[in-house]
Write a structure and sequence with these properties.
heterodimer, A: 217 residues, 3 helices, B: 229 residues, mainly alpha, two-stranded antiparallel ribbon, 10 helices, 2 strands, globular
Chain lengths: 217, 229
Amino acid sequence: MTLNSMQKNGLLLGLFALVSTGLVLGVEALTKEAIDEQQRAQTLASLNEIIPPTLHDNDLYHSCGLLSEPTLSQQPVPVYRGYLAGEPSALAVEAVAPNGYSGKIRLLVAIKPSGEVLGVRTLQHQETPGLGDKIEKQKSDWITSFAGKRLQSQDDERWAVQRDGGMFDQFTGATITPRAVVGAVKTATWYLQQNSTQLFQTSLPNCHSASEGESHE
Amino acid sequence: MSEFKTLTKQGLWENNPALVQLLGLCPLLAVTASVTNALGLGLATLFVLIGSNITVSLVRQWVPQEIRIPVFVMVIATFVTIIQLLMNAYVYQLYQTLGIFIPLIVTNCAIIGRAEAYASKNKWNYAAIDGLMMGLGFAAVLVVLGGLREILGNGTLFDGAELLLGEWAKQLRIELFSLDYPLLLAILPPGAFIGMGFIIALKNRIDAKREELQASEKTVTRARVTAES
């Protein structure tokens, strides 16, 4: 069998691609569990930060249900429900800000049944280090400025960054990131406020059994 | 052994990827706001560089000239993805801190530069040492610049080192002075350029001084020779 050099090169490139892909897949399979575990731990830590133990006595992480709500995200999002002595006490949802500076920003938003925001945390983002990454609690207190706020109406003008006439600071050199976060938190808060009673009553499909086989994209 | 010495000298000083070749400046300037971030990216780059250098050197006989670049790119991308997955799994906090700059190691020209200029022409053990030394040279500049900017901008050193090294590293944190108004310029990108400029200037100054010294030594010896004859 004789191959000309172009065919040979093509085959060789294909072989390299195959081996590289195989290696990456192997490592991915090996690390998948650890990565999922890290993400779970982080979600749980954030959840416990914004819904203090005094506000609930049930297991928040297992209270999780999957909610299909197109205004929040294309994919079903996890909702966590906190109860205190059997009474609904807190509601949290994983929201997605699709319009970050570099891709999606995953957020966790919690409110009291009264509608007051308990707190917001950033779960995952790819914003510019040093500028947009101040939405992380570790980097800056900015994300805590949502706590205690209320949304009066769906187009509440105060819910914007200061440059747009709202009440939330932007960062030096980064307006797009906080704007995206404020927008997503506003949408999520409005949805939670409007649907809180319903969300506590309906039974949602369990997150943990459903998400086990899926990726977190 | 002399090859080893040359590689060390080349990587760390004479042909330092950051100071002389001026490669990989994008991540270098972007993540050096603190020593921890700088060290994290420096180590990640170092591992990728060693891995890609060894692999490129091992496969160099089988890779024809025409397709070497796509093969190198694939090798580098594979190593970066593997490092990214490992960091995501085992140093999650740091992974989050460095964010986009881990996948961007792929675009660090220093890595493909070494693959092309050295690893594809030399034995794997030399290629490994070249990768190690170039990586160390790059990481060293990252750490120096990171330290400089962290001190000026934050008044601290090793802030957040526990994200990279574990809980014990919390003790490493040094608070040099506390600032009511930190020097924002040092933390922002222009500060990185200015700091980098000073480091390169310092290196050139040292080189010039050494050359001057050598030159004067030479004239001295020559003078003695003429005096004798």
